[in-house]
Design goal:
The protein is built from 9 helices and no strands. It has about 270 residues and is mainly α. It starts with 6 loop residues before the first helix and ends in a 13-residue tail after the last helix. The relative contact order is 0.08.
């Protein structure tokens, strides 16, 4: 039985289903009558064949999963918020207020309760991305503020002069110096990419803020649910683009940290 969405598994692990199965097994054991167990097994097969395919059951499962996902995301957001600066937390809470006002305006539309419910998850996803981007931006700032590229550039220039001037030494020593040149070049390249990524994140954060304000302003003036739904489709595209940016930026800062963490000035000197 195919169960790619997990509806059959959810139905089987339902508290009431497990209680019923346990009761049937216990009754069969106490009464020493296998017929009760066979009846329970047949009923279970019918239950698993019918209930997981019911639209109402699927809606209930999706709603429950959405609530669990939002609760998990909120825990992540709360942890990240503790690490943000007070000014950054104020920005987030301002967007949360805009979210609440926007949803309240949706509820005033014809059929607005359903519209507000369907848009809540999408807006919350954008706010989660906002906090993740803020956290990643702080990581980039920390990296760039503690990374002094001048000593790297100086050492790289000295190595290049040694190699080009025939002062590379033995073949083994030349190989080591060549490898060091490659590493220093990569570190400088990552520094440049980190600086560019910091700018990308800053503009993406501003884009989210602008979009949230636009959504709120349009929720005041737009009275047509279909128009609002079109705006929410645009919101979904915005979320997807933001998530891709978040993943890319998080991946890059992780790789940058692995490439070479910043050492104190004395430790960065070459051992001779």
């Amino acid at each position: 039985m195919a169960d790619s969405d997990g509806y059959v598994k959810t139905a089987f692990l339902s508290q009431y289903n497990l209680i019923a199965l346990g009761g049937a097994v216990l009754f069969s054991a106490v009464s020493m009558d296998p017929l009760a167990l066979l009846v329970a097994a047949g009923a279970e097969l019918v239950y698993l064949g019918v209930v997981p395919s019911l639209p109402g059951f699927k809606r209930m499962v999706r709603r429950r999963r959405a609530l669990e996902r939002r609760a998990s995301e909120q825990q992540t957001v709360d942890r990240m918020l503790e690490e943000l600066s007070p000014n950054q937390r104020d920005y987030y809470h301002a967007l949360r207020d805009l979210r609440d006002k926007t949803l309240e305006n949706y509820r005033r539309l014809p059929g607005g309760a359903l519209l507000a419910e369907s848009s809540t998850e999408r807006i919350d996803a954008l706010l989660v991305s906002f906090v993740r981007l803020l956290s990643t931006l702080n990581n980039y700032r920390h990296y760039l503020n503690n990374m002094d590229r001048k000593p790297l550039e100086k050492e790289l220039a000295e190595l290049r002069v040694e190699m080009s001037g025939g002062e590379g030494g033995s073949a083994e020593l030349q190989g080591i110096k060549k490898r060091r040149i490659e590493i220093l070049e990569k570190r400088l390249e990552k520094f440049d990419r980190a600086a560019e990524s910091r700018e990308i994140i800053s503009h993406q954060l501003a884009s989210i803020e602008d979009f949230m304000r636009l959504l709120h302003e349009q929720s005041i003036t737009q009275r047509d649910p279909e128009t609002v739904e079109a705006q929410l489709e645009h919101l979904s595209m915005e979320i997807q683009a933001t998530d891709e940016t978040v993943r890319e930026m998080e991946k890059l800062i992780t790789f940058t940290d692995e490439l070479g963490s910043v050492a104190p000035p004395m430790e960065r000197q070459r051992v001779r």
